[in-house]
Amino acid sequence: MRSNELAKLVGITEQNLSVLKNGRAKAVKLVTLEAICKHLDCQPGDILEYAPSETEPQ
């Protein structure tokens, strides 16, 4: 599925989907995550991963 098609189905802009896709988002609404998973037929864990922030102490 093309990004512009997914963005339209989810109800967000292509720019916002790009921010999510490239890992630059600081947050994601659960309703957005739910819609993405619905249209991609996946689970949140299939598209998310934990990465410590650069400011987080190690």
What are the main properties of this structure?
58 residues; 434 Repressor (Amino-terminal Domain)
Could you explain how this protein is built, in words?
The protein has 58 residues and is mainly alpha-helical. It has a single domain (3-47), classed as lambda repressor-like DNA-binding domains (434 Repressor (Amino-terminal Domain), Orthogonal Bundle), CATH 1.10.260. The protein contains 4 helices and no strands. It has helices at residues 3-10, 14-21, 30-40, 44-47. It is globular. The mean pLDDT is 92. Residues 5-47 form the HTH cro/C1-type domain. Pfam families: HTH_26 (PF13443). InterPro entries: Cro/C1-type_HTH, Lambda_DNA-bd_dom_sf. This is Transcriptional regulator Cro/CI family.
Query: Helical element count?
Result: 4
> What is the level 1 CATH name?
Mainly Alpha
Helix share of residues?
A: 40-55%
Please state the CA-atom Rg, rounded to the nearest Å.
Answer: 12 Å
- Describe the sheet with the most strands: none
Instruction: Please indicate the percent range of residues in DSSP E strands (runs of 2 or more).
Output: under 5%
What average pLDDT do the residues reach?
92
Give the tally of structural domains: 1
At the fold tier of CATH, the topology name is: 434 Repressor (Amino-terminal Domain)
Note the gap between the termini.
Answer: 38 Å
Helix/strand structural class: mainly alpha
Shape: globular
Uncertain regions spanning at least 5 consecutive residues: none
Number of strands: 0
What's the CATH architecture name? Orthogonal Bundle
> What's the CATH H-level homologous superfamily?
lambda repressor-like DNA-binding domains
Give the SSE order as H and E letters. HHHH
